[in-house]
């Protein structure tokens, strides 16, 4: 399969899951727009590296996903958006009655509202082209819950609902919208947490990963950013033309429990 000639915009993609998805889309020939809220030489170098490795156009566009006007401007600055991957997200953990209001507002804005604004900006162009793919990165926490993560879980459940509504509004127009629901994914951020968990629980690496970090993931294996990228590529393929308005769990069996 090739996505040559398609332009993909991936929010929150200068590291981790977003960058992994961008790389897999570029591998199949898509031009990619990388994004985060920073605007450093390193950010732009990441885009140059992707372009050089895969022989596609790759640009970095800074935009703060907590700000509606910047979300919409990202799509305009992309100069085209055939594939939209809403990936940007943040997290905060606290009991509901102690949850800081500003953290709630930020999580809802970045994890949920940004997907609304980018989708609203991208759909007219997709409709004009008669083809489009919206892939929203939700979470196993978009289908289930855990304590102390009220804002994140509310936002990710909202992303699943937004995906369904987007699918219904675009059905029969050559556009699909789906949500990918990862469990625990091995990203640089997660990798950096492992030594602290080893120390806190007095366990070796394999034990702390299996019994602490992946306690709710029956496979006892992390998903990888490449696997999430491959799932995204699949959703952009002709095989997925009739897959819309649904969720795909990449969670090692978490939500089967």
From TrEMBL:
Protein name per the record: 3-hydroxybutyrate dehydrogenase
InterPro entries: 3-OHbutyrate_DH (IPR011294), NAD(P)-bd_dom_sf (IPR036291), SDR (IPR050259), SDR_fam (IPR002347)
PANTHER family for the chain: 3-OXOACYL-(ACYL-CARRIER-PROTEIN) REDUCTASE, 3-OXOACYL-[ACYL-CARRIER-PROTEIN] REDUCTASE FABG
Record GO terms (molecular function): 3-hydroxybutyrate dehydrogenase activity
Top-level taxonomy: Bacteria, Pseudomonadati, Pseudomonadota, Alphaproteobacteria, Rhodobacterales
Organism encoding this protein: Aquicoccus porphyridii
Pfam families, alphabetized: adh_short_C2
EC numbers, comma separated: 1.1.1.30
Keywords carried by this UniProt record: Oxidoreductase
